[in-house]
Design the sequence.
């Protein structure tokens, strides 16, 4: 069987071979985001916290930690650096728009990878916009993997918050439309193995976050 070696995170390239053959996705991520405003009232960027599923977390922390304890931030720092650097090719899985135009991001800042007491890992980073934008015209973003190798889903409780937002600003979530029967039939490993370059299947399952200010 021909394997597609284009997973978004470097560590996933190895993880791909350890997983049994099954339909996409292979990794699940629970997303919590914070839209950060500057003193001038413009959106500076988005701060992410991505909590990975148990299987990915177990793979990530393998061999780390002493005496069965959870690994420290310092031990996980090299993996955090590798993961975030790898995400540059995929626009950090964060696709922002304003006035139907793409809003580009700069390299992430404040990158950390943490493991909790159950050894579930969370990747945290701030993603600054190349050019801060005023949200008087709605600013929106989605977090997803176009290939759907990784499934991103918003946390159930307080998935998106705002920091230093001007009075009257609001954030809302637009859930994706349910997949139609023909799309559900496509969710096989063979479909994704043969997906053409540039295909954008993941957007069909992505929640859109909309920020608007008076």
Sequence:
């Amino acid at each position: 069987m021909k394997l597609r070696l284009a997973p978004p995170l470097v560590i996933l390239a190895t993880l791909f071979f350890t997983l049994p053959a099954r339909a996409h996705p292979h990794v699940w991520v629970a997303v919590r985001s914070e839209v950060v405003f500057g003193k001038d009232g413009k959106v500076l960027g988005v701060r992410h916290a991505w909590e990975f599923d148990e299987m990915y977390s177990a793979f990530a922390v393998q061999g780390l930690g002493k005496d069965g304890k959870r690994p420290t931030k310092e031990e996980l720092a090299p993996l955090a650096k590798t993961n975030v650097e790898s995400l540059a090719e995929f626009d950090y899985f964060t696709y922002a728009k304003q006035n139907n135009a793409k809003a580009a991001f700069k390299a992430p800042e404040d990158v950390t990878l943490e493991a909790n007491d159950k050894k579930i890992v969370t990747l945290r980073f701030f993603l600054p916009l190349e050019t801060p934008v005023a949200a008087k015209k709605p600013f929106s973003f989605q977090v997803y993997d176009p290939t759907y190798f990784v499934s991103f889903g918003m946390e159930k409780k307080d998935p998106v918050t705002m920091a230093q937002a001007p009075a009257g600003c609001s954030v809302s979530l637009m859930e994706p439309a349910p997949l139609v029967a023909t799309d559900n039939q496509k969710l096989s490993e063979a479909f994704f193995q043969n997906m053409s370059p540039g295909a954008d299947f993941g957007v069909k399952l992505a929640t859109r976050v909309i920020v608007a200010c008076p």
Residues 62 and 125 are 22 Å apart (CA to CA). Residues 1-22 have pLDDT under 50 and may be disordered.
